[in-house]
Amino acid sequence: MQDTSLLIELGAIVLALGLVGRLAGRIGFSPIPLYLLAGLAFGEGGLLPLDASEAFVATGAEIGVILLLLMLGLEYSASDLVTSLKTQYPTGAVDFVFNALPGAAAALLMGWGPVAAVALAGVTWISSSGVIAKILGDLGRLGNRETPVILGVLVMEDLAMAVYLPILTALLSGVGLAGGSLTLLISLGTVGAVLYVALRHGRIISRAVSSDDAEMLLLVVLGLALLVAGIAQQLQVSAAVGAFLVGIALSGEVAEGASSLLAPLKDLFAAVFFVFFGLSTVPADIPPVLLPALLLAVTTALTKVATGYFAARRAGIKTAGRWRAGGALVARGEFSIVIAGLAVGVDPKIGPLATAYVLLLVILGPISARFTEPAARRLAARLRRRSGLPAPDDPPPPARVGVPDVPDAPDASLGDVSVTESPS
């Protein structure tokens, strides 16, 4: 009878995920908030609590995190990461200061302690690569000049995860300063070694894993990712980092083939992960943290816009592209939930706040990406009109019939200075 209940509950969960995902696709929206809401509905204190499938869903959620990071690693080669690290580190530093510190400050102001501050800093720091990629595709901006800048910021954040997650894992496990330092050294050494091997011998690794049989390739890559993730977790380095490094080590046709084979599995288990996070959150705990989540969401939305503007300006992008880059980076999603999922076992208060925070910014992200640049342009035009300056795209005055074409005298209030701005 218990097995029957397990099948019924799993069937209901997967069917519900399929329906809400289909709904999200029809309205052109990210399914992540709907998955979280489904988890809240099925969880403790929800409309239909689940019991028989809880252990299975928990295991599926762990696999979902591993697949998310594995697929992320498959998207980048070691040379891409090294190049980004050399050229984008000032932007990465600004991104960290602007977006991690508000989360840390909020946790300390609420009296949650330093460990929760480190966890909440990660929640507010990391943008959602998946949501942002979908937004850029939906808006037709993949070929825009600012898009490589946006991707550069995301790559820096992804690379920083390989350092941040082991630190957070060590703090959450309470190993102390010495143990945490050792864990960090192990993690940094592992990341450096994997990057070196991938740069020097990536083709050999890919050739060893490669197979013309899709089934064999899927089994080898998935098994290798799970094995390395488990070993990494045993060493207190983080299973997610281990899966990420496996993805980096593979390149070329193997990475492309593995990505196409693993994509459906990743979508399934990532959805299960979001549902599991919702299951572990009591809906009644969300209203008390809704106001702090809203304030934090507004603050870090503005800081992400500032980050994107800085990064695009540094790359020589014109003003409109800078605002588009900033607006596109606002969305948070899968990695904020991954970080909160690690921390919720030690500090349960983070779960409801992170859920509300991600729900707000996943909804705000597409709106920000679409309207930040037009809003900034209108605001600049209004300020320009108030100061009496011409707009940069004002048409020239009409020709005067029968009057010699004599240039107008300069405005005495402005002198000989012409205030213009090149359109993007």
Low-confidence stretches: 393-424
Query: What share of residues is helical?
Result: over 70%
CATH topology: Na+/H+ antiporter like fold
For the biggest sheet, the summary is: none
**Helical segment tally?**
15
Strand content: under 5%
What is the annotated CATH architecture?
A: Up-down Bundle
Number of strands: 0
Radius of gyration: 24 Å
Q: Categorize the overall geometry.
A: globular
Average pLDDT confidence is 79
Gap from first CA to last CA? 65 Å
| CATH class category | Mainly Alpha
Structural domain tally: 1
Following the backbone from N to C, one meets helices and strands in this order, namely: HHHHHHHHHHHHHHH
Provide the structure class: mainly alpha
Structure description:
It is a single chain. Helices cover 74% and strands 0% of the residues. Helix 3 runs antiparallel to helix 11. The C terminus is likely disordered. The protein is mostly helical and 424 residues long. The chain has one domain: Na+/H+ antiporter like fold (Up-down Bundle).
